[in-house]
Design goal:
It contains 5 helices and no strands. By secondary structure, the protein is mainly α. It binds heme C. Heme C binds next to helix 2, helix 4 and helix 5.
């Protein structure tokens, strides 16, 4: 009993402190990156792997001297068409990261998750990524040409509406708005 009397007040104080901290801190899984950082970290390198598979040289790329340390997915242990498969799936999965609530753009504006055009462009990217995945699985150059084209179109459609802002449109501060 005496243990309990000694222990409880401390526990209560701890719980009060913990809940006050939780109220102020962002949720543990809050986005750490802005939208541009997700694009630079995942979409940019992954789509380059898909674009590279369009070229004739792709068939003759040799693995790096130590493929387990390669910074080029195509020359890594998971190289060649497998790298294209993984890059395609990275694009597909990245659409979930793009649409997670709470992420901001460099402009400080929230990612426009409610905007129907934005929603459509995300869906187009997902479809293009799935198409590229199928093309990579079948190791078919014609299919990858078509899929890579659709990936590029998906990127540029969204960018022309939500990223590329001329000074008279408010410049970079207007990114993620229409
Ligand atoms: C659904 C809309 C959308 C799609 C699809 C999209 N982007 Fe983006 N992208 C944006 C927006 C909006 C920004 C600006 C984000 C910011 O400023 O935080 C951006 C920024 C970027 C940036 C950073 C540019 C900078 O100024 O730093 C890169 C790189 C990029 N995108 C690459 C891609 C690639 C490659 C694809 C296709 C595989 C793609 N994006 C598809 C909306 C999109």
């Amino acid at each position: 009993m005496s243990m309990r009397r000694l222990f409880l007040p401390g526990t209560a104080a701890f719980l009060m402190f913990a809940s006050a901290t939780a109220a102020q801190a962002p949720p543990a899984n809050a986005p750490a990156a802005n939208l541009a950082q997700v694009m630079r970290g995942i979409l940019f390198p992954s789509s380059n792997v898909i674009f590279a598979a369009q070229h004739d040289e792709f068939a003759t790329v040799r693995p790096d001297a130590d493929p387990s340390l390669s910074t080029d997915p195509i020359k890594s242990v998971y190289g060649g068409w497998e790298a294209v498969e993984n890059a395609s799936l990275a694009l597909v999965e990245a659409t979930r990261l793009i649409t997670v609530p709470g992420r901001q753009c460099t402009s400080g504006k929230p990612v426009p998750l409610q905007d129907p055009d934005f929603v459509k462009f995300v869906a187009d990217l997902r479809a293009a990524g799935l198409l590229a995945y199928k093309a990579a699985q079948s190791k078919d150059q014609d299919q990858i040409l078509d899929a890579a084209d659709k990936v590029g179109v998906a990127c540029s459609h969204c960018h022309s509406m939500f990223r590329e802002k001329l000074p008279e449109q408010g410049g970079e501060a207007s990114r993620c708005t229409k």
